[in-house]
Amino acid sequence: MWTKARELALLTPDDRNRWVDFLRAVSILAVVLGHWLMAGLYVDAGGELRRGDLLSAADWTHWLTWGFQVMPVFFLVGGYSNSVSWQIITRKAAPGQVGVYRDWLANRVQRLITPTFPVLLLWAALAVVLTQVGLPREQIRMATEAALIPVWFLAVYLLVTACTPLAYRAWERFGWLSFAVFIPAAMLTDWLTFTMKVPYVNFTNFLWVFLAVHQLGFAWRAGRFDNRLFALAWFAVGLAVLIRITVFGFYPVSMVSAPGGFSNSLPPTLALFALGMVQVGLVLALEPLGRKMLDSVRIWTATVLMNGMIMTIYLWHLTAFVLVMTAAWLAFGGVGLDSVPGTGAWWASRPLWLGIYVMALLPLIAIFARHERSFGPIRGGRTVPRLRAVLGVVAICAGLGATAGLTIASPDSVSGIRWWVVALPLVGAALMGFGPVYRPRNRNPA
Questions:
Q1: What is the 3-state secondary structure (H, E, C) of 120-170?
Q2: Whole-prediction pTM value?
Q3: Percent of the chain with pLDDT over 90
């Protein structure tokens, strides 16, 4: 794998912004490490398996989420990458050519959904089998919920990606205003949520917050952050706002769900918006140093290698965690689970446990990473109508959102799963003209 990655690294065009790829890899790896650190199962004095987490045990760890909650960085990178691919396909399109948007959208969706189907279908099958053998449904729910948490991000990212042509047109016409409009939108949403107690309106912040950061990806590519003093000022203003509304304000310090307050991330709040501004300013201020660092063939090769399997790592890292915890509890009698999260003994054991998680993840990467590198053509060699493609994206996003929010495990069905939740992404893929099995291995450009 290293040899192939090195070959690709040496073929990289000189004009490619390697910092984009590096940030993509680092942001996903930060999420993986954060999940592995924050989650924790332990056996209490009575021999019962308990679900604990680091954020509940130690309040000071809430500050760590400012570094580990890096989804804004991924949306920044997404904005940059989507603008590149959209501009390429529109420049190549003949005047009056139809189907440009649906072809582009199908390509972007397929790249993300291809590696997602295996983990979704595997856990659906496991839930059915474990239900039939009599495992307690609450334990099945807890396992499937933990393993499939990552798919919420894909639902939001696909929706934001689907908005790229309109968002990019807005950027070209209105510039910074196309970003600034999302600030009052997020503020109004939080006011309606927390002051006026309007239900469900807070879920619109998934769009307002992440579309805003996505717009900054356009600004980055357009050179608006080339002045490092401007990037540092962006970072400083964002940090001042973030501290004001969390430490001295209404919002929790933790940027992920934590006890004692509402979540800043599910759905996003103005605090996560501010954190996104902080992270954007910081990573773009560091860009010159980062790009110089990536001139190293070894570092760039490692970056290429990670990007070749980054979605596999992201989608399967919690499955590896669940498998390790299950083995430790059922097969080895709870060995190593006697330390309560946040204690000295718990921290001392983290390097060993992280190593075990990595070892459990490696075979999953070996088995499933091929889905990330293989893309099949649309069935029949033709595109589908635009409305059908949009409905397909909506169905996929609804299914992935329900998977993360409701879980696929059912508390009362005979089968043990919610079939409609599992079916929605499959139906969406079928509407777009592709399915969960991809036979050809065509490497698509961009």
A1: HHHHHHHHHHHHHCCCCHHHHHHHHHHHCCCHHHHHHHHHHHHCHHHHHHH
A2: 0.91
A3: 62
